[in-house]
Amino acid sequence: KRVAVLVSGGGSNLQALIDECAKPDSPARIVLVLSNNADAYGLQRAAKAGIATAVVNHRDFQDRPSFEQAIMAELDARNVDIVCLAGFMRVLTPGFVGNWHDRMLNIHPSLLPAYKGLHTHERALEDGMTEHGCSVHLVRPALDDGPLLIQAKVPVLPDDDADSLAARVLVQEHRIYPAALRLLAAGAITVDGELALVDGRPGPMIWTETD
Length: 211
Ligand code: GRF
What we know:
Elements: E1 2-7, H1 12-21, E2 29-35, H2 41-48, E3 53-55, H3 64-77, E4 82-85, H4 94-99, E5 104-108, H5 120-126, E6 131-138, E7 148-155, H6 162-185, E8 189-192, E9 195-198, E10 201-202, E11 205-208
Parallel strand pairs: 1-2, 1-4, 2-3, 4-5, 7-11
Antiparallel strand pairs: 5-6, 6-7, 8-9, 9-10
Helix pairs in contact: 1-6
The protein binds 5-O-phosphono-beta-D-ribofuranosylamine.
């Protein structure tokens, strides 16, 4: 399957996906890395890996639909089958999301449906959560919503701050995102309404740091 990864920043999740797709048995091949930010370090990661890049800067467009039309043109030009959002910081319209129904993944740093939106680690700490984590889901029009494929749980430790907790979660993001992309590209995901079946079993798969 031909994959495009959309990034806005450092792209550590992109790097995990690049490393996964470089494996000889990978059913997914990244054919494009696209960013709305010309300075995104993720673009350099792509270039180092010999992957085509594109910049579609949202500030160059009058409105969201025309911005998304430019993104669609880049995706269509490369016959992309699957889109992965990896730290892509622009909200996509229902129209765009609809084009990629059950073909677009996102990684979110919380145990969805808890803590949709931003600053998830700070909020979990504030609430005194003893457990936190990350989720890979199929993208639906509602923000950080959609059928869950894989989640990883991490403990919140007494001396955690947002940075230490985010770092612990990020390690798990780099495990579950490549695994979820492999499953989707291999055709191991089926969706029944808002429930994803992973290898025929109701999702999400739940991982911990030790398994
Ligand atoms: C991570 O917390 C990820 O969950 C969120 O953006 C942060 C940085 O991701 N999407 P990356 O290093 O740019 O992949």
